[in-house]
Amino acid sequence: MTSPIRTERHGDVLVIISDNPPVNALGAAVRSGLDAAIRQGVADASVTAIVIRCDGRTFFAGADITEFGKPMQGPGLGEVIDMTEAADKPVVAAIHGTALGGGCEVALGCHYRVAVPSAKIGVPEVKLGLLPGAGGTQRLPRIAGVALAVQMTALGDPISATRAAEAGLVDRVVGEDSLAADAIAFAKEVAAKRPIPRASERSVQPDPEAIEAFKKAQGRKMRGFDAPAANIACVEKASSGASFAEGIAYERQEFMTLMTGTQSAAQRYMFFAERQAAKINGLPADTRPRPIRKVGVIGAGTMGGGISMNFLQAGIPVTIVETAQEALDRGTGVIRKNYENSAAKGRYTAEKVEGMMGLLTPTLSLDDLAGCDLIIEAIYENMDVKKELFAKLDKIAKPGAILASNTSYLNIDEIAAATSRPEDVVGMHFFSPANVMKLLEVVRGAKTAPDVLATVMALAKPIGKVAVVSGVCPGFIGNRMLSQRGAPANQMLMEGVAPERIDKVLTDFGMPMGVYQMSDLAGVDIGWHRDPTRIESIRDALAAKGRWGQKTGKGFYDYDEKRQPTPSPETRAIIDEFRAKGGHAAKDYSDDEILAGLLYPMVNEGAKILDEGMAQRASDIDTVWIYGYGWPVYRGGPMFWANTVGLDKVVAGLEAQGVAVAPLLRRKAEAGELF
Ligand code: 3H9
Prior knowledge:
Blueprint: E1 5-10, E2 13-18, H1 28-43, E3 49-54, H2 77-86, E4 91-95, E5 98-100, H3 102-109, E6 112-115, E7 120-122, H4 136-144, H5 146-155, E8 159-160, H6 161-166, E9 172-173, H7 179-190, H8 208-222, H9 227-238, H10 244-259, H11 262-276, E10 295-298, H12 302-313, E11 318-321, H13 325-344, H14 350-358, E12 360-363, E13 374-377, H15 383-396, E14 402-405, H16 412-416, E15 425-430, E16 439-443, H17 450-460, E17 466-470, H18 478-494, H19 499-509, H20 515-522, H21 538-544, E18 557-559, E19 565-567, H22 569-582, H23 591-611, H24 618-629, H25 637-645, H26 647-657, H27 663-671
Parallel strand pairs: 2-3, 3-4, 4-6, 5-7, 6-9, 10-11, 10-13, 11-12, 13-14, 14-15, 16-17
Antiparallel strand pairs: 1-2, 7-8, 15-16, 18-19
Helix pairs in contact: 1-2, 2-3, 3-4, 4-5, 4-9, 5-8, 5-9, 9-10, 11-24, 12-13, 18-23, 19-23, 23-26, 24-25
(S)-3-Hydroxyhexanoyl-CoA binds at residues 22-23, 25, 58, 61-66, 77, 98, 100-102, 105, 124-125, 128, 130, 132-134, 136, 272, 275.
């Protein structure tokens, strides 16, 4: 097998080049090759300096995550980096693309770093439930200081080459197109310079104030996760006066604790799940996506506006259609305001805002959609109205245009049947707020053409979404599972469990909100029959008293002016009165029982969805829940979570609740298999 590492001589400089597509991950062959090449450079007296760079789209993007959990082959990354740093001649890292994780650690082990302006440098291990375990937590603060090291390790977001240069992480920002030559020139400049700067030989002052401020500002974001605190603790260790070797020993111990834990397993699983979701089963190999240069959106309400923003941000022109001028103006006004708010926070320049708004064409005429390559309908949920609209679009849209519906539960096949081109019809279910939530459920109709599906799936990435394919079934993957939570929650209310207790169990589990907080946000009156004298459920009883949720300042909870919820005595009384009428006995539930009662039926529904082929794979279901509903990523989505609970335990729990167990779930539990 040829090594992914090769070397070149440029005068006295040895250039070590990695070519390990797609992202130059530091797998065993790369580590062995690097190890040998650096040893060669050190041993060769005619070499005065060494450059390490990568071919392809990026500098090393980190350790090879697929190797984690398997026995280690070849030299460890930490050893290779230590050996690099110990070299008695300068070693220069030449960075382009993304120097991430282990890649950043390789660069920190080098004595100097040069980077192109577009390069990004970061340690995203925390997003995999880990920490930079090849000396990164000890070298980074020694070069960049505690405050930046804490921010970079505990949040995991990369920084730009310019920011890195300010922080001393990059010694020179070089030409975008001349990295190889500029790095060699730099290496020649520093070849004779002594002492050689080694990060491990530096010390760093503690900065407890910076750490406190960081924890205060980011505490909410990090809630529930183990890895951020471990990253911070390692950086603290580096600045505690402990020796470098002590710091490394501490880092290793913390790394191993995280690596063997469930959270990191879940987060690493999700890294691949998200990428796997983009792959569509059963597509002919020669399927080519259709070009999308112009998009039409019908409906300028919250959904239509949010959907449009995604495309405008990606530089794709959008024609947005409404039925009345006032609604159109309101919709475009909201888009502008959202962008201006982001600009005020420094996310965009005013120029960029104008650029995006310049791509938006508001209109009252559907005929203006004739030139669009993709038209997304985002009007209210009514089958007849949607069918009528699609029949009109059929006449207006150019041949080959994709006609998409943003429906969250209606039958795409029925909508497609209203056109003469059902093969061009597909579901694109965005989640609210559509410019923020990352999930896109792509609904594959019975007749959806392969290239239509491929186009929409490929479009997800440029518009910043994670797309998952769903078959046609009521509620698709996400809402179909969500609907299973309502009945057991209601049963618990009827047995005297307070709504806030049910919600707390879910938020303690890591969900962003509970059943009743969500209900108050959406509106308790949604689907209500509007007859205050007809009280057949707790919802009816609340709606009859005007407790419609956040919009009326009261629902399951009471709300203050800042929309902060507090448990409501009135709600309590309404529930008690309703329970008393039905003669329901009170029942005690432990927190674990509440959780199992709410989540096992969802897992059960997930198993049905999988068995029916409505989801391509269990990890797609997990991706839906992480990106569409805020399921805590450190628990890996409902199907992964069920594996960690034990499928036999889930089956037993469902039986105890009197829920019919999905055949696939039972088969897997009996066979000792996992999802
Ligand atoms: C680490 O370094 C631990 C250390 O501290 C050492 C401890 C001892 N490994 O994302 P893309 C695959 S932890 C294996 O679609 P992009 C990916 O699955 C690591 N495979 O491209 C995909 O495969 P496929 C710290 C990897 O351009 C393909 O490459 N580093 C790895 O949108 C293309 O990926 C990170 O966490 C990997 N490390 O984004 C960085 N990375 O084609 C993780 C990618 O079969 N990587 N693949 O689906 C990323 O953030 C993005 O991939 C990157 C490129 C920004 C680099």
